[in-house]
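Protein modeling request. Please complete all fields; requests missing the sequence field cannot be processed.
Requester role: graduate student
Desired output: 3D structure, token encoding
Chains: 1
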Amino acid sequence: MIENKLRAAGCVFAEDEASILISAARTTAELDDMVNKRVAGFPLEHILGWAEFCGLRITVDAGVFIPRRRTELLVRHAISLAQSESVVVDLCCGSGALGAVIAVNLEWIELHAVDIDPVAVSCAHKNITGTNGHVYEGDLYEPLPSTLRNRVDILIANVPYVPTESIKLLPPEARIYEASVALHGGKDGLDVMRRVATDATLWLVPGGHLFVETSERQVPLVVEIFALSGLTPQVVTDEVLEATIVIGTRALSQLP
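Delivered output (256 residues):
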């Protein structure tokens, strides 16, 4: 049985995964191929070509970072502080999942998404098409139109925050099959976070918000980074999702 094969390979949710693969396969040969890939360690989402995130089916191409359930906390709070016609920027967008969910939940937002990985950019185009969003390839803020400076209401940046020395401790599904650029955060995991926070006030409107996900252990450093960058930090946690985010707000009276 497929379920037994998956369980023997170490799949914790073998029964559920077997059901999903059976439903997704169009032929017996395709099902066999999908099961063999899963047994070999390929992520289920890459085999299927999609992941469910915040109720949406998000296209996830091979090698692209798979959106995690814990990131729903970040998206939920971004939506709560956004409104129709907000300018939303999604840095390190990966598949574009976060921006796509925000666009679906809010009408008439102006969405801009950026990633340095061309494979992720191609994937993001698929997920953001239909939202009137724009996708750019490049390093953080670099490819964004200069006209967005001081106009961004919601800046989401699900940056890599795994310390380089901890990469080897990640599950093989992430360590082997997801792009390393989406995982490596440098010595303390916060290299990219610092770069995002440092320039955030150049792009945010007064009162605008930066949202990042981090680990509980990194919170004190992230709070310090935000404060030094001119942002007022707020820490939010969710024990059920095992998620921690930091929201940084640009002061209303802050000059560009």
